[in-house]
Design a protein that fits this description.
The chain has two domains: 53 residues; 230 residues, 3-Layer(aba) Sandwich (Rossmann fold), CATH 3.40.50. The protein is 50% helix and 11% strand. It contains twelve helices and seven strands.
Length: 288
């Protein structure tokens, strides 16, 4: 030890470098501790706001972004973990779209309203979930469509008929009107479709931000969802933008160029939770 100390004394530059490294390490520990404290405080505040809000029931109508993974790492389960006052009824159906479709939003709205019946295939879990719901207790209806409308080149709107269910915007409007009758106490939240990519032979060949299958880009469908939310003065959550997925980090968030990885689903659920908590805090709403 004496020898090493003597070497440091003989070479002050090494000594100074060691001191700088020690200070940097100490600073890193302090920053980590502060961030940890802030994170814990944030979690406690979130729990307090959720507790004041009381129990919340959310009905989700959407596509495979919600339906493909229904286990502990699915968006519904992750949202319930984020907010322990929330119960999510996941009635999403993979492959469905907002526009007129066998299991899409319009068909689901008519099924819920009792105006028609859907003959669900055995592997569609939405049928079983729907049977458990007391619509009078639903606090929120999350509408999460757009990817399959985008892939299918569904026309985004009909200038002559805002309720045209063969269009994306018309289907949203028509379904909202029908669902408002069935769930008069529910608040609607419009979720944008998410970013996706086109793959060929393992390579990204295009992005939804710029690629048009015939009805507009993926970003255009997100803008349409925003427009309908604003028209009805409903909350809109821009998952397309807030997730921050791009060609540079797509591999982290997308498992097949379209569906979200576990990291992506956690980020998605976190964004939803943050929006809900912010809304509850700003409105001061409680169930007391």
């Amino acid at each position: 030890m004496r020898k090493e100390t003597e070497n440091l004394q003989k070479n002050p530059l090494i000594g100074r470098l060691c001191m700088v490294l020690i200070l940097l390490a100490g600073a890193a520990v302090c920053v980590s501790a502060v961030l940890g404290i802030h994170r814990i405080a944030g979690e406690q505040k979130k729990k307090q706001i959720a507790a004041r809000r009381g129990d919340v029931e959310i009905l989700v109508l959407g596509d495979s972004i919600w339906d493909l993974e229904r286990g502990d790492t699915g968006i519904a389960a992750l949202l319930e973990k984020e907010l322990d006052n929330v119960t999510v009824y996941n009635c999403a159906v993979k492959g469905s779209r907002a526009a007129k479709d066998e299991y899409g939003l319009c068909a689901m709205a008519e099924h819920i309203a009792g105006k028609s019946r859907i003959d669900f295939p055995g592997d569609v879990q939405a049928a079983e979930v729907l049977e458990k719901i007391d619509l009078s207790n639903v606090d929120y209806i999350f509408i999460s469509y757009g990817l399959n409308d985008y892939f299918g080149a569904v026309k985004r709107k009909n200038p002559d008929d805002c309720y045209d269910i063969t269009t994306y915007e018309g289907a949203l409007c028509s379904s909202i009107e029908l669902l408002r009758e069935s769930c008069p106490g529910a608040e609607f939240v419009i979720l944008s479709p998410t970013y996706c990519q086109g793959y060929s032979y393992g390579q990204v060949i295009h992005e939804s931000t710029s690629h048009d299958y015939g009805g507009g880009t993926g970003a255009d469908y997100a803008a349409s969802a925003r427009r309908i939310a604003e028209a009805y003065e409903y909350p809109y959550i821009d998952l397309y933008g807030e997730l921050g997925i791009s060609i540079h980090n797509g591999a982290e968030y997308l498992e097949d160029a379209t569906h979200l990885t576990e990291k992506g689903r956690k980020a998605y659920a976190g964004i939803l939770a943050a929006h809900l908590v912010r809304q509850w805090q700003e409105s001061g709403s409680t169930n007391a």
